[in-house]
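In this supplementary section we document a worked example of the pipeline. Step one takes a protein sequence of length 489 as its only input; no multiple sequence alignment statistics are reported here. Step two produces a three-dimensional model, which step three serialises into structure tokens for compact storage. The input and output of this example are shown verbatim.
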Amino acid sequence: MNSKVCWCGNQNLQEFSSDYSLCSQCGTLVLNQDLTLDEIRVKNDRDEFYSKKYWLSYQTDKHGYPDIRQRSRQDLPERCLYWLHTLMAYTLPPGKVLELGCAHGGSVALMKWAGFDALGLELSPWVVDFAHQTFDIPMLLGPVEDQKLETGSLDAVVMFDVIEHLPDPVATMSHVVSLLKEEGILIIQTPNYVEGYSYSEMLADNDSFLDQLKPQEHTFLFSHRSITDFLRNLGFDFLVFEPQFFKYDMFFVASRHPIARNTEEQISHNLLKRPSGRLILSLLDQSKTLNQLTQKYQESEQDRQERLRVIEQYSQKNSWLQSQLDNSVESLNQSQVQLEQTRSELAQSQVQLEQTRSELAQSQAQLEQSRSELAQSQAQLEQSRSELAQSQAQLEQSRSELAQSQAQLEQTRGELAQSQGQLEQTRGELAQKTVNLEEACRQVQDFQQSQRQQLQEELARTEQALEETKQEITAMKTSKFLKLKAIFS
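The serialised model returned by step three reads:
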């Protein structure tokens, strides 16, 4: 994990190349090396990075750029005039404009000639003096944070290939926007990192953006998304992207408020107010004509390239057709040899054909016989199928009856099992009743015997009493009392 922090505050950066990491949160390429504002200051113009040698030898030796003296002539009719035209499309003279990192100062000079109150800023005393002497323009020396500029005093701040060099872009740009009026604008050109484009893919494509991976210079390389988020964090919610001068750059105007574009008539009317403005207008006209000629040349060159491509295609096609023709002639010769051979084989084939026809006639006779036998077999097969169908029907009926019988058998088995259970229960009850009956009989016999004995005893007593009664009666019959009773009765 890289210890470097992106401008957005994200510390979890992904490896991109040996010198840069990628912020997956905002889409910015972040230099792995830490740089500070003090490190980019130029004190003696000899040892510091952005000192005199940077403008005279480093850019030429390292990147193959023209030195600053050549650029002070070459840049005026090209990028400087293009930047000025873009500036006037969104704000008109006599507004106050500051260009940060103005190099030789040619762009500032064009702005002043157009009528702007323009001044430039650079870090090197030598390049500040060079710009002042070359174009007679006011110049500031050192970081913008060190300048005594009034807050809210500027109509525009322009930065061409500068923001990617800032060690702390949030702090520096926060100070820059504080110098702008409420309706002030920023115009920025900076390398454009295309999100999703990996370092290995750039190497494979030999992409021009590889030249912008400058670990001694470029600290933050923004994408469209990240620069939009960056400026919105500063309160600049409105961005208009203009066509970039170089294909690897992005070029845009930013504002706190909706952005309105000036017409060409408004720009021309403003420039005609001053003599130097007429010179600028003439340069713009010539630039427009040159651009039109360049466009026509590019279109013509594109058409020429297209025609050349078509000619090459036809040439390749003609070579291919000639090759095909040669191959076809050779194939034709081979075909003629094969034709003669085929004719011989055809004669042999005709003899074989006659023989085959004879064999075919025999085969057809055999086929007719086979067909007749097949018809008989089919009839027998149909009869067998009919008998089989009847047998299957009977079998199905038998299966159905068998299933019913099995069901009844299962029911009978269930009832028999139930009956056996009831029988066992009845046998048990009967055995119990038998025991109970035997016990009752025994009790009855005992009772009868006891009653018989009691009756016999009672009968004996009765017979004895009867005998005694008989004796008494007999005695009474013989007694006097009875006699007297009989007399008196």
